[in-house]
Amino acid sequence: MNQVPRGYRAVVTDPAADAGSVLTIDLGAIRENYRRLKARLGGTRCAGVVKADGYGLGADRVARALMQEGCDTFFVAHVGEGIALRAAIGTGPAIYVLNGLPPGSEADAVAAGLTAVLNSAEQLAAWREAAKAAGHSLPAAIQVDSGMSRLGMSPREVEAVAADPEALEGIDLRLVMSHLACADEPGHPANEAQRIEFDRLRAMLPAAPASLANSSGIFLGESYHHQLARPGAALYGINPTPRQENPMLPVIRLQSRVIQTRTVEKGAGIGYGHTATAEGVQRLATISLGYADGWHRCAASAARFDGIELPFVGRVSMDSIILDISALPEGRLRPGDLVDLIDADQTIDDVAGSYGTIAYEVLTSLGHRFHRIHVGA
Ligand SMILES: *Cc1c(COP(=O)(O)O)cnc(C)c1O
């Protein structure tokens, strides 16, 4: 509980009005994106990747929306994320921990009914010990490194597991998985090389469902689908097929509030460092969004209001950005109004492209300070 000084009450009548910016998350669009991926996958099962709090959009809300579409398998990155998700969605669905279990976290993972992704011989041994201590077998995926050199057992470790009849004692092997390094580049030769290596490595292990494809992997074709796909980004509206039209629906709308408007004369310095100077009489609006909100200092470049583009002027501050609103009729934009930063016209992929990063980074940086509205539940 927040301590409120005597004589005051923490009254919140309109949380959107109290916040600087508003992030609207369309759970209906996430569900439609899941249906689109399922249609493309045919008979292959489709999980939901909800690590990093559902890429910043609320793992619990996203998971519950996907469950309404029949999704029963989720992936998180950390044990802590898995424990929180379990509390939110109940005992039914499987929750896989992609980064594996750090030493000492096994008992908590058992208690929350999490499925370990075993990335190394050490993690396998620790999960075997945990099964012994629990007195029953424990669910696990084995991740093999098919050529990304990030996570997963090396070919040598896989051979050692295959050669040791006791290696999987107490392990209920639910999945063998690997991850593609270049799935968003369909022509990249690493894709086929990884697929072939994945098939070779999993053939050494006991029969279990296999999973290789992330969002972009689903679009590489049926030979990448196996038994389970693991999309994250595409569910959230990020284009899984860069340089082609986005087959997914947009999911988020980011709006920021106008704090103040002003008219400046020719020659006025604008913002930190005076990196901009008014070239004539200029009308400006300052909005309540900045780099502390996850809006990167070098990220785009314009907001929109009434369909009219309002360019940023000068530097992005911690909590504010200055817009040139000279294109709008005088008095049209007033303090309290919301301007659009991300919507169907300026997508997260557009914003990412404007400063040379990927939409994943834009999305996961956003939102911790915003008023979030979930619609379409
Ligand atoms: C993050 C992640 C995914 C989801 O990837 P997207 O590109 O967001 O679809 C799938 N598998 C693993 C191992 C991951 O780390």
From TrEMBL:
<protein>
    <recommendedName>
        <fullName>Alanine racemase</fullName>
        <ecNumber>5.1.1.1</ecNumber>
    </recommendedName>
</protein>
<feature type="active site" description="Proton acceptor; specific for D-alanine">
    <location>
        <position position="51"/>
    </location>
</feature>
<feature type="domain" description="Alanine racemase C-terminal">
    <location>
        <begin position="251"/>
        <end position="375"/>
    </location>
</feature>
<keyword id="KW-0663">Pyridoxal phosphate</keyword>
<comment type="similarity">
    <text>Belongs to the alanine racemase family.</text>
</comment>
<dbReference type="GO" id="GO:0030170">
    <property type="term" value="F:pyridoxal phosphate binding"/>
</dbReference>
<feature type="binding site">
    <location>
        <position position="318"/>
    </location>
    <ligand>
        <name>substrate</name>
    </ligand>
</feature>
<dbReference type="GO" id="GO:0030632">
    <property type="term" value="P:D-alanine biosynthetic process"/>
</dbReference>
<dbReference type="InterPro" id="IPR000821">
    <property type="entry name" value="Ala_racemase"/>
</dbReference>
<comment type="function">
    <text>Catalyzes the interconversion of L-alanine and D-alanine. May also act on other amino acids.</text>
</comment>
<dbReference type="GO" id="GO:0008784">
    <property type="term" value="F:alanine racemase activity"/>
</dbReference>
<dbReference type="InterPro" id="IPR009006">
    <property type="entry name" value="Ala_racemase/Decarboxylase_C"/>
</dbReference>
<keyword id="KW-0413">Isomerase</keyword>
<dbReference type="Pfam" id="PF01168">
    <property type="entry name" value="Ala_racemase_N"/>
</dbReference>
<feature type="binding site">
    <location>
        <position position="150"/>
    </location>
    <ligand>
        <name>substrate</name>
    </ligand>
</feature>
<dbReference type="InterPro" id="IPR011079">
    <property type="entry name" value="Ala_racemase_C"/>
</dbReference>
<dbReference type="GO" id="GO:0005829">
    <property type="term" value="C:cytosol"/>
</dbReference>
<feature type="active site" description="Proton acceptor; specific for L-alanine">
    <location>
        <position position="272"/>
    </location>
</feature>
<comment type="pathway">
    <text>Amino-acid biosynthesis; D-alanine biosynthesis; D-alanine from L-alanine: step 1/1.</text>
</comment>
<dbReference type="InterPro" id="IPR001608">
    <property type="entry name" value="Ala_racemase_N"/>
</dbReference>
<dbReference type="InterPro" id="IPR029066">
    <property type="entry name" value="PLP-binding_barrel"/>
</dbReference>
<dbReference type="InterPro" id="IPR020622">
    <property type="entry name" value="Ala_racemase_pyridoxalP-BS"/>
</dbReference>
<dbReference type="Pfam" id="PF00842">
    <property type="entry name" value="Ala_racemase_C"/>
</dbReference>
<feature type="modified residue" description="N6-(pyridoxal phosphate)lysine">
    <location>
        <position position="51"/>
    </location>
</feature>
